[in-house]
Amino acid sequence: MTHHLKKRILLVDGDNRVRTLLRNYLEKENFIVDEAASGIQAIREYYVHGNFDLIVLDYELPDMSGLEICKYVKDSGDVPVVILSARAEEGDRIEGFQAGADDYVVKPFSPREVLLRIQSIVARMTGTHISHVNDSSSNEILISGILIQPSARRIRVQGNEIHLTPKEYDLLYFLATNPEKVFSREELLREVWKWPVKETCDGRTVDTHIKRLREKLTFHSAEGNEFIQTLWGHGYMFRCLEQSLS
């Protein structure tokens, strides 16, 4: 999908006031907005249309947890998910990221902030924030048979494009551009997720994303599990199977 086409957003929230507020802001920015007031309705919309560029998802829906829907979406595709929640505790945010959320916004929220977060994620997915997309070949990175095209935020393994979520791409890019260097889960949370230094970190969020990255890499390469090494008690490292970084 090119950046000239309108982006389609699915708003899932049991509160009609929340949906109306966000719809007004999104439509002013030329987004196409569909709505769902329950988990069942959200799954039906996702299954029938299947062409959403992003989903805004309430943590607590009338009929089920938003985390269940988030996991369903992530297991079946790569659509970015922004979770809205009245739960502000660290543990709740961690559960959201473990479910695959790309962002987590606490209620009450600023609709302008939510809009900016959505625009940022959509831009990263489509590469619309890059002003010279046609020059992407000039800064490509080839390491261990993985081709990274930063300008387009694309990853190719053995010629096949790997579809990653924004955070999966950020994580792989960070590790691949710092090869043979071990990073603890806390360091990755702060470097990739921009987790506040003073907050306690739960590394399970990193573990979940590493697991998904390995699964996607392995699908296209027999060496997929070897790219990102686990050093027990220390963290993760991107291994140069071929010592070639260009």
UniProtKB/TrEMBL annotation:
PROSITE patterns: OMPR_PHOB, RESPONSE_REGULATORY. SMART domains: REC, Trans_reg_C. InterPro entries: CheY-like_superfamily, OmpR/PhoB-type_DNA-bd, Sig_transdc_resp-reg_receiver, WalR-like, WH-like_DNA-bd_sf. Residues 138-240 bind DNA. One of its GO terms (molecular function) is phosphorelay response regulator activity. Residues 8-122 form the Response regulatory domain. It is found in: Cytoplasm. The modification 4-aspartylphosphate is found at residue 58. Keywords: Activator, Cytoplasm, DNA-binding, Phosphoprotein, Transcription, Transcription regulation, Two-component regulatory system. Pfam families: Response_reg, Trans_reg_C. CDD domains: REC_OmpR, trans_reg_C. One of its GO terms (biological process) is regulation of DNA-templated transcription. GO terms for cellular component: cytosol; protein-DNA complex. Residues 138-240 form the OmpR/PhoB-type domain. It comes from the Bacteria. This is Response regulator transcription factor. It comes from Paenibacillus agri.
